[in-house]
Amino acid sequence: xxxxxxxxxxxxxxxxxxxxxxxxxxxxxxxxxxxxxxxxxxxxxxxxxxxxxxxxxxxxxxxxxxxxxxxxxxxxxxxxxxxxxxxxxxxxxxxxxxxxxxxxxxxxxxxxxxxxxxxxxxxxxxxxxxxxxxxxxxxxxxxxxxxxxxxxxxxxxxxxxxxxxxxxxxxxxxxxxxxxxxxxxxxxxxxxxxxxxxxxxxxxxxxxxxxxxxxxxxxxxxxxxxxxxxxxxxxxxxxxxxxxxxxxxxxxxxxxxxxxxxxxxxxxxxxxxxxxxxxxxxxxxxxxxxxxxxxxxxxxxxxxxxxxxxxxxxxxxxxxxxxxxxxxxxxxxxxxxxxxxxxxxxxxxxxxxxxxxxxxxxxxxx
Length: 366
Description:
Blueprint: H1 5-23, H2 27-32, H3 35-53, H4 55-84, H5 111-114, H6 118-139, H7 141-157, H8 164-188, H9 196-216, H10 229-245, H11 251-255, H12 257-268, H13 270-286, H14 299-321, H15 323-328
C-alpha cells in the first residue's frame, strides 16, 4: 500500500509540536503550528475514499484503529486510580474508557493521562458524523465548511445548553469540524481548483484576523488565542487551507533514510505516542527532586536533561505498548516501531551461451 508521505510528515510535525508544547508550555508553540486542526484535516481527507467503498466498514475500521490503545491505557490506569483512592467516581462513567463518546473520567492522579483524551473523543465523533457530513458537503460545499463555525459562534454565546460534560464535547467537535470537512475538500480535489490569488488572501485573513482579535481581547492571563474557541477554529482553518492546497514533492524523503524511518516510526506508533507522552512528561517532573536535577548548573541544561528523561520514558512506553497498534492495524505485532527493511530479491542469473571454440587453422596444401 502506497502511503502519502506528505500526510505522514504533517502528522509527525503535529505530534512533535504537541509533545513540545506539553513539555514547554509556551503559548507561541501553539501558534507556530496548529497541530490539532491539521490532524483533524488529515483524518477527514483519509475518510472520503474509504466511505465511498463502504460506510459501515470504514467506521468499524477507524474505531478499531483508534480504541485498542485507549483500552490498554484504561487497563493500566483505572485500577491504579481505584487503588490509590478515587471516592467520587461514578461506576457507569467508567464505560467511557471502552467507548469514549465523552471524556473518560479520571482522578487527580490520572488527570495527566486523561487530560489528552479529548482528541480521541472528538475524532470518534467526527468519524461517526462523517457519512452525514460528506453527503452535506457534496450538496453544498462552502456551506458545510462554514456551518460548524456558525454553530460554534452560537454555542459560545449559549454555552450552558448541553451541560458541562456534553458541552465540552460539542465545543471541541464544532471547533475542528471545519478542518475535517476541508479534508473532504482536499480529497475531492476542490481545494486544488481554488486559485492561489483567492486562497492565499483568505488564509492570511483567517490567521491575521484571529490573531488581531485575540490581541485586542486578552484573557485574564493575557494573550490567549486558544481560549477563544471560534478564533482558534478560524486560525486553524487558515493553516489547513494552505497546507492541503499544495502538496510538495516528497521524493527526497526516501533518500534521507534516517528521516524516512523516523517518519514511518512515528506514524506506526502515533496513537501510543499521543496517549502516553504527557504521562512521561509528568513522571519526569515528579522525578525532578529525587534525582536532584536542581543541582544542574544552568536552567537550559536542566530543561534539556528533564526533557531527555521524559522522552526516555516515552520510548519505554512505545516499546512496551506500541505493539497494540500493530494488532489494531491487523499487522503482525512487533516491539520495534520501525518498519521492516525491504528485502530485495537477488538479481536472476541469466545463463550466458558458451563462447565458441576458436577455429583450428588447417595447413594449406602446397
